[in-house]
Design brief:
The longest helix has 23 residues, at about 225-250. About 50% of the residues lie in helices and about 10% in strands. It has helices at about 25-30, 40-45, 45-60, 75-85, 100-115, 120, 185-205, 215-220, 225-250, 255-275, 280-290, 295-310, 315-325, 330-350, 365-370, 375-380, 390-400, and strands at about 15, 35-40, 60-65, 90-95, 125, 135-140, 150-155, 160-165, 175. It has about 400 residues and is α/β, with parallel strands linked by helices. Keywords: Oxidoreductase. GO terms for molecular function: alcohol dehydrogenase (NAD+) activity; metal ion binding. It comes from Ramlibacter aurantiacus.
């Protein structure tokens, strides 16, 4: 019998839909008077951002803006923002922008709430010492799901790797998801962000299913596949497969933009409790070597990881096919069709099809496989058991575009 265990962690409030950004002033003022806003330089000069800032001021808030957020969020930037904000003593933090801006807000709220704590102290799961300053997350791209997740990722230059801080304390207090804020997102970034969300949803839906003990949700931030995350993941896959190609083709299509943002939100809710798996584990060392965006790396890897996982995921893949509107004569055929449908969608929106296209040197393939195994949380969340040899098979296949080499005999 299918397990009826479910776990859902989410913000206290999610405001979704066109125009919801205009609520930010009243939402923020209910949480405090001094508001720190974390964004990037491009957004800080946008008229939409000026209107959001004015909304905060009109509600009686004092506002400090930090607009130095960089892509892939280097640790030095987090520390710079904390140093700037500490004399201001903010009572809440807003992250307005892409995933890096929202992760910046989460990590800054952590360090401001717990003086003396370092990010090194918090790497891993359940290491955040307690509640953080309330965060309002406002995405301007639709992909990372950071507006609803318990994780923030930072690039630790000393380790030359991206590292995650995972704790329910990091879930934003309020997520304000207004698809009108994504209308100016260029086609390539729209494609990358949406592909990231699709990967989140697929890996959450196919994550390993664990024994539902009463301690499971207290001992793990990411508990694996469960009843509630499955519902969100399927909703995400359905919305993204229908709306993402349209949003990439015509960025002014507000209905498509809303569908993609809804998919990214649902994917965030799904992987925020279920977790991700092999595609994310492999991307970390690939990204470190190639200096390519996280979203592109996981999307390139997803069809290859699906091909490897196929023997363990027939029923789940068939459900993915149905969510994408693909039907077949049998469950096995539907499972195969799901892999093709995902690969085809990613190709249509311009995602590269091999790691070689990302610039990965074949001579570094063995190192990538070795380093991927160090992401134990992701490795053990994969539905099919992984060892270094299996990782090497996936990496080699993804290097040369040889997905068929991962298919069962």
């Amino acid at each position: 019998m299918q397990s009826t265990f479910g776990l859902m962690r989410s913000p206290q409030a999610i405001l979704f839909g066109p125009g919801q950004r205009h609520a930010v002033g009243r939402v923020a003022r209910a949480l405090g008077r001094r508001a720190l806003v974390c964004t990037d330089q491009r957004l800080s000069t946008d008229p939409q951002f000026a209107a959001l800032r004015q909304s905060l001021l009109d509600a009686g808030a004092e506002v400090l803006v930090y607009d130095g957020t960089q892509p892939e969020l280097p640790m030095d930037g987090v520390l710079e923002c904390v140093a700037l904000a500490r004399p201001f003593a903010p009572e809440l933090v807003l992250g307005i922008g892409g995933g890096s801006c929202m992760d910046m807000a989460k990590l800054v709220s952590l360090l401001l709430a717990h003086p003396g704590t370092t990010l090194d102290d918090c790497y891993g799961e359940f290491k955040v010492p307690g509640p953080v300053l309330p965060v309002i997350a406002m995405p301007t791209t639709a992909g990372t799901g950071s507006e609803v997740t318990p994780v923030a990722v930072v690039a630790d230059q000393r380790r030359d790797l991206k590292v995650g801080v995972s704790s329910p304390h990091l879930i934003p207090h309020t997520a304000i998801c207004d698809p009108e804020l994504t209308l100016s997102c260029p086609p390539r970034l729209t494609a990358w962000a949406g592909a990231d969300a699709l990967t989140h949803a697929i890996e959450a839906f196919t994550a390993t299913r664990r024994e539902p003990t009463p301690e499971l949700g207290l001992e793990r931030v990411f508990v694996g596949k469960n009843l509630l995350s499955d519902a969100c993941a399927l909703a995400a896959i359905s919305a993204l497969s229908r709306h993402l190609p349209r949003a990439v083709q015509d960025g002014s299509d507000l209905a498509a933009r809303a569908g993609v943002m809804f998919g990214a939100l649902q994917a965030g809710l799904a992987f925020g409790t279920a977790g991700t798996a092999a595609a994310h584990a492999i991307q970390y060392p690939v990204g470190a070597i190639t200096h390519t965006a996280h979203a592109v790396g996981v999307a390139v890897l997803m069809p290859y990881v699906m091909a490897f996982n196929r023997p363990a995921c027939t029923a789940s893949f068939a459900q993915i096919a149905a969510a994408m509107g693909v039907h077949a004569a049998s469950e096995a055929a539907a499972a195969d069709a799901a892999i093709e449908a995902v690969a085809g969608l990613l190709q249509r929106i311009g995602i590269p099809s091999t790691l070689a296209e990302l610039g990965l040197d074949p001579q570094r393939a063995a190192w990538v496989a070795e380093q991927s195994m160090l992401a134990a949380r992701l490795v053990t969340n994969n539905p099919r058991p992984l060892d270094e040899a299996a990782m090497a098979r996936i990496v080699q296949a993804a290097l040369g575009g040889e997905r068929q080499a991962l298919s069962p005999p």
